[in-house]
Automatic annotation (TrEMBL), chain B:
PANTHER family: ALDEHYDE DEHYDROGENASE, BLL3820 PROTEIN. Residues 415-436 are annotated as: Disordered. It holds the Pfam family MoCoBD_1. InterPro entries: Ald_Oxase/Xan_DH_a/b (IPR000674), AldOxase/xan_DH_MoCoBD1 (IPR008274), AldOxase/xan_DH_MoCoBD2 (IPR046867), AldOxase/xan_DH_Mopterin-bd_sf (IPR037165), N-heterocyclic_Hydroxylase (IPR052516), OxRdtase_Mopterin-bd_su_IorB (IPR012368). Residues 185-249 form the Aldehyde oxidase/xanthine dehydrogenase a/b hammerhead domain. Gene3D superfamilies: Aldehyde oxidase/xanthine dehydrogenase, a/b hammerhead (3.90.1170.50), Aldehyde oxidase/xanthine dehydrogenase, molybdopterin binding domain (3.30.365.10). This is Molybdopterin-dependent oxidoreductase.
Length: 142, 699
């Protein structure tokens, strides 16, 4: 089966989750394993521009579609905004959050705070950096 | 050195700051390179708290090098100084102050040599970006030029003077975190991202209950005693095999979990001891008795624990996100019956760590699997369920407070008792290894029952049990349970989470509507009074009576461990279907602050962690098993629930630094509890403050 990965054609024999394929077979480290149950947001990627968890999705679901990971978004104005706000501690949650924030800005270039919170609701940040992350997304909007 | 555990011991040697005292050779701490950079080698590790940036700032300052010229080497046993465990908000005290001194010493040594060889007097030389310049501004030498000499092969001298507080230029500034840009690009920076040639993948299958014996073993699994794992060439295959093995394996026996844990806390035998007794015991005419309960809580990191191990020629190398690489080495060696020199533990970053989680445990899991596959690196990764249920939990506690007052309402006696399992079950400290899979191995000893470090080392269940207020008589006792059906160990704040809440709830009740004035009248400590006043000013607490119905503000104060940072918190909540925390205002005095923005980040994070514990967190189990094994069953705070947090840092550059990772957690919980009183008219006594628990308060 084939799909587009970060702008390039990619082939995969299938039989694993999209996250496993990305990490193990395409050597990407941005999408992260946090739960495998679509409950924490660590593994989010863009699938045709929409932010989705990749940990329980069969790689076959990407057939003919465009997959973008945080590596494929780099460099992105959100990254500079996150750096400016020092929005991170351990950083384990960040690539999933950046992917969802990027998807939000693409469909709504001027989101208010409630819209940002709603877009990031699937994502846990156990270090408690949420306020800085909200500020960073607002900064990227401004 | 680990003050978090031992406190100071007098060993007859000239006192050197922090961990330098017990790791006295300068070459252990730093090295210079011909390209003009320097490497520092801390024994404290990055847990997500930003310590690497802070330590690099301290070194850059003292050495006179740009921050970008400082490299930080990962901690490796045998090479890095042994600084025991990165915990207790002590990294700046123990490691930072050691590095400050060692770097000041190195600078002095290098300048003396440069003075001798150039003939320019030592006092006339200055350091600029690593160059040693004479009075005419011409370079006479540099760290780089002298880097091939063995100048650091010396013991640190007690007589060096680091740069005085008023002259610091790097320490005290908010340098951006060094590790953030690569993390924002998703670069392979975590241990989880390590890929070695020929690497295999391991998953474990856990006994359903502690003490259960393995009776039926699937033939494709790896078994050692009751340790059961699968090893495969790919992660996907390992996950599939583990699921199959879990279905096929049969276990027998084991002990029951304490499903009714409050009853279990009261009925289980324990060792009683006095934590402190001050003043003369007096009985009052009015007595207030309150009992507070907090459940078992989980670390619940967003990433799951991971380790990579390589077994080759009878020696073991392990990459781990342990908080204590040397301590882990000690217990790995014991569990595997190897001499400690045959084991090397090298630190790599993991997901955020808030205490003694499963990082050490998974290292033994990886090592056991690697022993069965010599010459092949084996990566072991925990599942979400293991992360939430197999890692040590922060133990449930019962805290009782009894306050006696005289006829005029003055407090004459404060008596308190904290009861529960010990809060310290870390590896490297007991006779037998304290690693999850160690007791499963043939002929192994059982898991050591967790203990409480002495109060001089911060304490465990008794941390912050003694109020910081002036009281004519205080008697504080603790009871450490001697049975441990659920493995208990340290989580951010340890016993302080319940003890500060208990003290501040009772103080609030005694204050009878004047929570600030009442506290101030019982405070002798001016730094405590300052943070309290600042939090009030920042939050508008004095206008709380104007809040709408169903809303409330509460205030709380603590000095972490009674020896660390001071923190006061005002919480603003609203009672909806569930409680919602709208805003937190904090004032904190943590002495010298090396990186103010980094400290704010930690304090904000601690406050949000505290909010999550206050409103949501509880490990759930019945007699058969732990039920809270997913984010559904162990919910934590999400984006929509996160309060706004404002923090005021009180600058005290001349005072010793005190650490920012933990001080805000406990007072946040207590402030939320006190806000519940205004919002709902009840004083909660059971954590978390869920509708179910709050409903029990009126019973
Ligand atoms: S790993 Fe996919 S949502 Fe948690
Ligand atoms: S920064 Fe650690 S989980 Fe978000």
């Amino acid at each position: 089966m084939g799909f587009t990965l970060n702008g390039r054609p990619a082939e995969h024999p299938g039989g694993v989750t999209l996250l496993e394929a990305l990490r193990s077979d395409f050597a990407l480290s941005g999408p992260r394993f946090g739960c495998g149950q679509e409950q924490c947001g660590a593994c989010h990627v863009l699938l045709n521009g929409e932010s989705v968890p990749s940990c329980a999705l069969p790689v076959e679901a990407a057939e003919g579609r465009e997959v973008t990971t945080v590596e494929g978004l780099t460099p992105h104005p959100l990254q500079a905004a996150f750096e400016a706000e020092q929005a991170g501690q351990c950083g384990f949650c960040l690539s999933g959050i950046l992917v969802s924030a990027a998807a939000l800005l693409r469909r709504n270039p001027g989101p208010d705070e409630a819209a940002i919170r709603a877009a990031l609701e699937p994502h846990l940040c156990r270090c408690g950096v949420q306020n800085r992350i909200l500020r960073a997304v607002r900064r990227a909007v401004a | 050195m680990n003050l978090a555990f031992h406190g100071f011991a007098d060993d007859g040697k000239a006192r050197l700051p922090g961990s330098l005292h017990v790791n006295r050779r300068l070459s252990r701490w730093l090295a210079f390179h011909p390209d003009g950079t320097a490497t520092i080698r801390p024994g404290k590790v990055e847990l997500g708290q930003g310590i690497l940036t802070t330590l690099a700032q301290i070194a850059a300052e003292e050495l006179g090098l740009p921050l970008s010229s400082i490299r930080v080497a990962p901690t490796v046993t045998g090479e890095s100084p042994d600084e025991a465990v990165t915990s207790g908000s002590l990294s700046v005290q123990e490691c930072g102050m050691a590095l400050r001194h060692a770097c000041a010493d190195a600078r002095a040594l290098f300048l003396s040599v440069a003075a001798q060889s150039s003939g320019v007097p030592r006092e006339a030389l200055r350091v600029e970006a690593g160059s040693f310049l004479g009075p005419d501004g011409v370079e006479v030498s540099s760290y780089a030029a002298l880097s091939d000499r063995d100048l650091l092969d010396a013991e640190a001298s007690p007589d060096v003077s680091p740069i005085p507080a008023g002259a610091r230029r790097v320490a005290g500034t908010s340098a951006p975190r060094l590790d953030l840009p690569p993390k924002l690009r998703g670069e392979p920076r975590f241990l989880h991202d390590m890929r070695l040639p020929g690497m295999l993948h391991a998953r474990m299958i856990r006994p359903p209950r502690p003490g259960a014996r393995l009776v039926t073993v699937p033939d494709f699994a790896l078994r050692e005693g009751d340790f059961l794992a699968v090893v495969a060439a790919s992660e996907a295959e390992a996950t599939r095999m583990a699921e199959r093995a879990a279905r096929l394996a049969r276990w027998e026996g084991g002990i029951a979990f304490p499903a009714d844990w409050p009853r279990w806390l009261e009925d289980t035998p324990g060792e009683r001891s006095t934590v402190a007794e001050q003043g003369e015991a007096q009985d009052g005419t009015q007595v207030l008795r309150r009992v507070f309960w907090r459940p078992f809580i989980a670390h619940a990191s967003v990433g799951t624990c991971c380790a990579v191990a390589l077994w080759e020629a009878g020696a073991l190398r392990v990459w781990s996100h342990s908080q204590g690489p040397y301590n882990l080495r000690t217990d790995l060696a014991k569990a595997l019956r190897l001499p400690p020199e045959a084991v090397v533990v090298e630190h790599r970053e993991g997901a955020g760590c808030y205490g003694h989680n499963g990082a050490d445990d998974v290292a033994l899991d990886a090592a056991l699997c690697a022993r069965a596959h010599p010459g092949r690196p084996v990566r072991a990764l925990w599942t979400r369920a293991e992360e939430l249920a197999a890692a040590p939990l922060s133990p449930a506690m019962r805290v009782a407070v009894e306050v006696h007052r005289d006829g005029e309402g003055r407090i004459v006696s404060w008596r308190t008792e904290a009861r529960g399992n010990g809060h310290s079950g870390r590896p490297g400290r007991a006779k037998d290894p304290a690693l999850l899979s160690a007791p499963l191995l043939p002929g192994a000893a059982p898991m050591p029952v967790s203990i409480n470090p002495p109060l001089a080392g911060g304490g465990g269940v008794q941390r912050n049990l003694v109020p910081l207020y002036r009281l004519p008589h205080v008697k504080a006792e603790m009871v450490r349970l001697t049975e441990m059906p659920i493995r208990a160990s340290a989580l951010r704040g340890l016993g302080a989470l319940a003890n500060v809440w208990a003290i501040e709830s009772v103080m609030d009740e005694l204050a009878e509507g004047d929570p600030v004035g009442f506290r101030l009248r019982h405070l002798d400590d001016p730094r405590a009074a300052t943070v309290l006043r600042e939090a009030v000013a920042l939050s508008g607490f004095e206008n709380r009576h104007a809040l709408s119905e169903g809303e409330g503000m509460g205030i709380a104060l603590a000095r972490y461990k009674n020896t660390g940072a001071w923190c006061a918190v005002v919480a603003h909540i609203r009672a909806e279907e569930r409680l919602r925390c709208l805003a937190l205002h904090l004032a904190c005095d943590m002495g010298e602050v090396i990186n103010p923005d980094g400290a704010l980040n930690q304090l904000e994070g601690g406050a949000i962690h505290g909010t999550s514990i206050a409103l949501k967190e509880e490990a759930r189990f019945d007699e058969e098993c732990i039920l809270s094994t997913s984010w559904d069953t162990y919910p934590v705070l999400r984006f929509s629930e996160v309060p706004r947090v404002a923090v005021k840092l009180i600058a005290r550059p001349e005072e010793p630094p005190l650490g920012a990772g933990e001080p805000s957690v406990a007072p946040t919980i207590a402030a939320i509890a006190n806000a519940v009183h205004q919002a709902l008219g009840i004083r909660p006594t059971r954590l978390p403050f869920t509708p179910e628990n709050l409903a029990k308060e009126s019973d």
